[in-house]
Structures are given as C-alpha cells and as structure tokens.
Amino acid sequence: MSKLVMVIDDSPTVRKIVEVSLRREGLEVVSFPDGIEALRAVTSHQMERIPDLVVLDIDLPKMNGYEIARYLRSKPQWSRTVIVILSRHDGVIDRLKARLAGTQAYLTKPFTTQMIVDVVNSNLGLSTPSSPAVS
User: What is the DSSP string of 84-133?
Assistant: First the structure.
C-alpha cells in the first residue's frame, strides 16, 4: 500500500504543485484548503486512514499551522504521522514554534518540487535513487 500524504495549504497553486510532484513519486495525496476541512475529512471518516505525512502551511484561514500541528500531536492516532511545515516565514522563532508544535521538518517558500520530494521521501523512510547526490 502506498504512503498517504495530506497537503494543507490555502493556495490552490501550491497544493497542485505538491500533489503532482508527490503523485509522480507513487504517493497517494489528498489536499485541503484549510485545517478545519482536513480534520473534518479525517474525523468524519471520509478518509480510510490517517496520513503518513502532512505538508502544512502556517498561514491558514480559521486555524493556523501551529494550532493544527498541536491538535494532531494531542491525538494518539496521529503520533506516527510526520508533519512538515511549508511556509513563507523563515524566522528562527517560526522554526522553533513549529518544532514545539511537534513538526519534523520545515521548508520555506518558494520551494522546488525536488525539495518537497526529498523531505517527504526521507521522512517516510523511502529511498530516492533517482535524485543525484548533492556535491
């Protein structure tokens, strides 16, 4: 069974880019414009399983990325889900807040599809033989 990635970003463009690049890697991807919708999909069982990894924006409507990460971390069934922040904020405080909220990785926008693929693959323990070694 392929790994399931959930993308939560209010930008349709960002969601599309991440979806396409991860699907190309053979991953299953679901995406939502905000955390409330994403959480509703999981709690109402629209999704059969908890995602293996969540790509999460910080600036979201209704509930920000830190709040979503903290909420997910408070639920035992989400304990094994990797949370990756994808944000335009690049400050030390932002990274610290993300870490404290229980996230495993932090990417900044603008990003390349290769950055997303690499972070997702390495955090899911998938090897990426296709990517050339960085010298």
Answer: EEEES---HHHHHHHHHTT-SEEEESS--HHHHHHHHHHHTT---TTSPP
Q: At the top level of CATH, which class does the domain 4-123 belong to?
A: alpha beta
50 phi and psi angles, rounded to 5 deg: -75, 135
Q: Are 85 and 93 in contact (CB under 8 A)?
A: no
**Tens digit of each residue's pLDDT (9 = 90 or more) over 41-73:** 988 878 889 999 999 999 999 999 999 999 999
- Global confidence as pTM: 0.91
Nearest CA-CA partner of 104 in 124, 89, 90: 124
Q: Does the bond joining 110 to the residue before it have cis omega, within 30 degrees of 0?
A: yes
Extents of the domains making up the chain: 4-123
In the structure encoding, which two tokens stand for residue 126, read together? 């998938």
Do the Cβ atoms of 59 and 10 come closer than 8 Å?
A: yes
DSSP annotation string for 31-97: EESSHHHHHHHHHTTSSSS--SEEEE-SS-SSS-HHHHHHHHHTSGGGTT-EEEEEES---HHHHHH
